Known about the structure:
Radius of gyration: 18 Å
Structural class: alpha+beta
Number of helices: 5
Largest sheet: 4 strands, antiparallel
Strand order of the largest sheet: 3-1-2-9
Order of helices and strands: HEEHEEHEEHEEHEE
Amino acid sequence: xxxxxxxxxxxxxxxxxxxxxxxxxxxxxxxxxxxxxxxxxxxxxxxxxxxxxxxxxxxxxxxxxxxxxxxxxxxxxxxxxxxxxxxxxxxxxxxxxxxxxxxxxxxxxxxxxxxxxxxxxxxxxxxxxxxxxxxxxxxxxxxxxxxxxxxxxxxxxxxxxxxxxxxxxxxxxxxxx
Length: 177
C-alpha cells in the first residue's frame, strides 16, 4: 500500500472513491478509498458488507445523513473552566459550534476554515486529541445489542482493507457514550 501510494508501484493510476452502504441494523456507512484497482476495491468492500450483514448502496443513498465539516476534539473532563476556555478560543477563531459531551469539547467549523481555526486554537495553547475534516453524522443511531458484535467486526474488516482510507458511520456505540 505504501509503494502504491508513493508512486513506486504504479501509483500514478490511483483514484479516490467513495462507497455508501448500510451495515447491521441499518447503520449508514460512508467508505472512502484510495485505490489503483476500483474493481478489486468494490469487490472487497461489497464482500465485507455482505459477510457482516450489510449491503452496498448507490451513490447518495446515505451521504445525505452526513455533513462534511472540520472537527477538533479536546479532552476537557467535564471541567467548566476547560470547556469555557475551548469555547472562547473556538468562537474567537470563527468556529461554527462547540459541543460539550462525555468529557470532551468538540469544535465544529466549515472545512475551508479548518486550518485557520486549528491554528488559532493551537496559538491559544490548546491541544486537540483528534483533528480533521470528517464526514460527521447529522444524527447518531443506537445499535441494538445483537448487532453490536457484527458491526464491530464489519468496521474492523473495512479498516483492515488496504484500499480503505476512512470509514464514517452514524452508529452510537457504547464507547462513543
